[in-house]
Amino acid sequence: MEILVNSIQKNSDDFNEKIDKYIKMSKKYAKINDNVIFNDMIAKAQSKTQKDALIAYDKVYLPKLEGYNVALDEKGKILDSYEFAKLFSGKNKISFFIGGAFGLSDDFKKSTDAVISLTKLTLSHKIAKLILFEQIFRALCINANHPYHK
């Protein structure tokens, strides 16, 4: 199984070590890639308007739709860990998408297979991403009957 986590954010070195820990622990179950995207087009668009930013996000994300696509959005469906683990069942490739400062466009969310929320709380991108990687590892363990979830 291959899992791709795509995020629009400036590099956050302070969380990379923690995220790398979950990627390393998950390697026996799946190949995981952390794709951080931030370029001049996004930076300029974000300094203009929300509409410009969402268009820029779509331009970088639409070509990355691969396999089973999951958008993270505060208005998405909230799953427990077992429901989240079911997302992985029977899939060869899963792509997760974390929006930029303005989230994700409605058109992009409609182009994905699922829209989920990690919590009703508003989280910084760094914390949301860390929680996502921990939940990915937890889901892989649940599906492998590994005792980590207990």
From TrEMBL:
Gene Ontology cellular-component annotations: cytoplasm
Family annotation (PANTHER family): METHYLTRANSFERASE, RIBOSOMAL RNA LARGE SUBUNIT METHYLTRANSFERASE H
Chain residues that bind S-adenosyl-L-methionine: 72, 99, 118-123
Catalytic activity annotation: pseudouridine(1915) in 23S rRNA + S-adenosyl-L-methionine = N(3)-methylpseudouridine(1915) in 23S rRNA + S-adenosyl-L-homocysteine + H(+)
Origin species: Campylobacter blaseri
Gene3D superfamilies in UniProt: 3.40.1280.10
Keywords for this protein: Cytoplasm, Methyltransferase, rRNA processing, S-adenosyl-L-methionine, Transferase
SUPFAM superfamilies xrefs: alpha/beta knot
Role description: Specifically methylates the pseudouridine at position 1915 (m3Psi1915) in 23S rRNA.
Subunit structure: Homodimer.
GO terms of molecular function: rRNA (pseudouridine-N3-)-methyltransferase activity
Name of protein: Ribosomal RNA large subunit methyltransferase H
A Pfam cross-reference name: SPOUT_MTase
EC number from the UniProt entry: 2.1.1.177
